[in-house]
Amino acid sequence: MTPELALISALNGISYGLLLFMLASGLTLIFSMMGVLNFAHASFYMLGAYFGYQIAKWIGFWPALVVAPLLAGALGALVERFGLRRVHKWGHVPELLFTFGLSFIIVELVQVIWGRPPVPNDLPPELQGHLFTIYTTTFPISRGFIMLVAVLMMVALWLVLTRTRIGLVIQAALTHPDQVEALGHNVRRVFMLVFGGGCALAGLAGVIGGVVFVTEPSMAAVAGAIIFVVIVVGGMGSLAGAFVASILIGVIQTFGLALDYSLAGILRGIGVEVTPSTFGYAVWKLTIAQVAPVLPFLLLVLILIVRPRGLMGTREG
Amino acid sequence: MLRLSMKMAMVACASLIASLAAGLVASDAALAQTQTVKIAFIDPQSGLMAPVGANILHSYQLIADIANRENWAKGVKFEIVAFDNKLSPQESLNAMKAAIDQDIRYLVQGNGSSVALALSDAVTKFNDRNPGKEVLFLNYAAVDPDLTNSKCSFWHFRFDANSDMKMEALTSYMAEQKDIKKVYLINQDYAFGHAVRKAAREYLSRKRPDIQIVGDELHPLAKITDFSQYVAKIKAAGADTVITGNWGSDLALLIKAAKDAGLTANFYTYYAATTGVATAMGASGLDHVRFVGYWNVNNDKVGSLGEKIVVEFKKKYNDDWYTMASYTVIKSLAEAFNKTKSTDPVKVAFALEGMKVQNVNGEVEMRNTDHQLQQVLHIASWQKVDGKKVRFDSENTGLGWRTEKVLDSFVASQPTSCNMQRPARPD
């Protein structure tokens, strides 16, 4: 691997990982607080992209970058207030099923409103072009922008959770909700806030992911699968874990794509004859690049076997 | 009581038979005047490939309108009925069943050889089991060579040039380009993509053994939204030329990523003239991107029939008409209806075999032995509109395709291994 490819792969991996973190942070926050595995989380990512597209058409991309996540967050808060809260008393499984059903409803609604094909969601002129050049490869501004927003969001989240009053209440309510309630705090409102906040973060990721990649109805399903891997690998409910896992998965996927090594090649390297007539050749000839899309899921399975609570999780099982 | 109900049942039966007979008479009478032949369009209308599907659906609708307006088939009107197959072979079989339930006897499909292979197989089985209800599969774009070779079927007709034919034409052109030294292959990981990479390797080693293949990539079909990592690999391999059979979003996003990373290699493609690609590449693709296909509107026939259709399509849908096969398909059907004075798929299938029709390029022939249309192929490059060689732009970019070479049909023609199983010829 040339240094140019390695550097570009690292940058691509980190920017993709940071986008994943924007998505996963909200999900893991909601989980740690409410014990709800929000299946509809990626749907709010998609909603963010579509809201962003629509609002950008009306008033421009930059206002949309603020308004669309707020809208997604408000919608999330409403879902918590009038949906989840009612289902809550029946336990976690109905909550899970509720969000599962919700994800399908949101996809259908999006298809009714914006149609099934991708929408022409283009980068604003300010984000087109190149940020810098590594050797001969140019690095697009849009990717730098993803990284910038994700880092800003991470810092803001950390400040809110550790330096503000509401942050302290949230942290306390994570472990001792009854105590916090007894102290006169409205824990239910805190729940609503966290759920809405998590959805807003997903919406923010959506606005950016929507313009950099493609805005279309299957984006929720694609992102949904991968962020579950992130939070399980990182450890359910651990923000730091989600961060590490996001970057890890981003880097594994991009570097995986760059590696054209196969078992057949390695076996040949140590002098074992492998030909198309060898038993199981279809498996031997697979390169890492070809299996790269599956690597995160392989990691998920391995982590669950070896370390069920995830890299940095505190809960067992 | 019992007797009465028996009597009633008999009356009901008799009236049913009477009404059926009346219906038959009525439909016979209708046949003599005007009849509408419905054609099921089974292609993606959702997902990443939906914009391509939408464009081609419009292409068929426009050609059907023209055929009806100009009365191509005497006394027969065409109607296109769309079914969304989500690019899935399984969904396509459901769509086929739904179409048959609606008494549709003609299917058109093109996006995805995986789908076409499933449909061809299903149509063949259905026709074997349901004599008298046969359906025809008119494939306008699925180009896996197997469909007219080892897996050929009497009920399948291909109106596009197959992948090997296109690669034959493309490599003939590439052989003359002396600056090509290092070629990178990137293709979708399914039947068609595999066919492209195999043919590219074979034909290049025959025509230009000095060219080095520096990469051979397969990626999942219609799943990837970010190609930057693939582009980084192409750069790292030092390729000066990329050959790809990618289509739809897989080509548009690949070229977009190439633009973002500043990749300057030349692209030799099958489908750069399809929806979304022009917008994605813009000026960055100038003189770098080429495609091989059965037609290009900017050819030397100024004021041709094809131009008129492009203009009408633009006016009606504000989009580009590039699926010229939609013309060939409807035209062939119309002529077969006229020749047989029937819309019965079995008679029509026999009429289509070896038939010669005029499409916007001139005369084309549906080869008898394997149902592979023989037609000229064009190679074009991405250039600025100059009003002479590039008169029409693509997707309102001010840039369009300049014809570099037109290859006669014999250049790209391939032998076939098809052993066609024909049913008994109807009288």
Features:
heterodimer, A: 317 residues, mainly alpha, 2 strands, globular, B: 427 residues, alpha/beta, Rossmann fold, 2 domains, five-stranded parallel sheet, 42% helix
Strand-helix topology:
The complex is a heterodimer of chains A (317) and B (427).
Chain A: H1 3-34, H2 41-59, H3 61-88, H4 92-114, E1 130-134, E2 137-140, H5 141-163, H6 165-175, H7 177-182, H8 187-212, H9 219-234, H10 239-258, H11 263-269, H12 281-284, H13 288-291, H14 295-306
Antiparallel strand pairs in A: 1-2
Chain B: H1 2-32, E1 35-43, H2 50-69, E2 76-84, H3 89-101, E3 106-109, H4 113-129, E4 136-139, E5 156-158, H5 163-175, E6 182-188, H6 191-207, E7 212-219, H7 228-236, E8 241-244, H8 249-261, E9 266-269, H9 277-281, E10 289-293, H10 305-317, H11 325-340, H12 345-352, E11 356-359, E12 362-366, E13 373-374, E14 377-384, E15 399-407, H13 409-412
Parallel strand pairs in B: 1-2, 1-3, 3-4, 4-5, 6-7, 6-8, 8-9, 9-10
Antiparallel strand pairs in B: 10-14, 11-12, 12-13, 14-15
Helix pairs in contact in B: 2-10, 2-11, 3-4, 5-6, 7-8, 11-12
Named at the architecture level, the CATH assignment of the largest domain in chain B is 3-Layer(aba) Sandwich
Secondary-structure element pattern of chain B, one letter each? HEHEHEHEEHEHEHEHEHEHHHEEEEEH
Q: Topology as H/E string of chain A? A: HHHHEEHHHHHHHHHH
CATH hierarchy class name of the largest domain in chain B: Alpha Beta
Strand proportion of chain B, as a percent range, falls in 15-25%
The biggest chain-chain interface is: A-B, 35 and 27 residues
Number of DSSP strand runs of chain A: 2
Global morphology of chain B: globular
Whole-number mean pLDDT of chain A: 90
- Widest beta sheet: strand line-up of chain A: 1-2
* Shape, principal axes of CA atoms of chain A: globular
How would you name the CATH homologous superfamily of the largest domain in chain B? Answer: Response regulator
Structure, described:
The complex is a heterodimer of chains A (317) and B (427). By secondary structure, chain A is mainly α. Chain A has one domain (3-253). In chain A, 73% of the residues lie in helices and 3% in strands. Chain A contains 14 helices and 2 strands. Chain A has helices at residues 3-34, 41-59, 61-88, 92-114, 141-163, 165-175, 177-182, 187-212, 219-234, 239-258, 263-269, 281-284, 288-291, 295-306, and strands at 130-134, 137-140. A two-stranded antiparallel ribbon of chain A has the order 1-2. In chain A, strand 1 (130-134) and strand 2 form a beta hairpin. In chain A, helix 2 (41-59) packs across helix 8, helix 2 (41-59) packs across helix 9 and helix 6 (165-175) packs across helix 8 (187-212). The longest helix of chain A has 32 residues, at 3-34. Chain A starts with a helix and ends in an 11-residue tail after the last helix. The model of chain A has no long low-confidence stretch (mean pLDDT 90). With 427 residues, chain B is an alpha/beta fold. In chain B, helix 2 (50-69) runs parallel beside helix 11, helix 5 (163-175) packs parallel to helix 6 (191-207) and helix 7 (228-236) packs across helix 8 (249-261). Chain B is globular, with a radius of gyration of 23 Å. Residues 23-32 of chain B have low confidence and may be disordered. Chain B folds into 2 domains: 35-161 and 306-374, Rossmann fold (3-Layer(aba) Sandwich); 164-293 and 376-412, Rossmann fold (3-Layer(aba) Sandwich), CATH 3.40.50.2300. In chain B, strands 7-6-8-9-10-14-15 form a 7-stranded mixed beta sheet, sandwiched between helices. Chain B has a 5-stranded parallel beta sheet with strand order 2-1-3-4-5, with helices on both faces. The interface between A and B is medium-sized, with 35 and 27 residues.
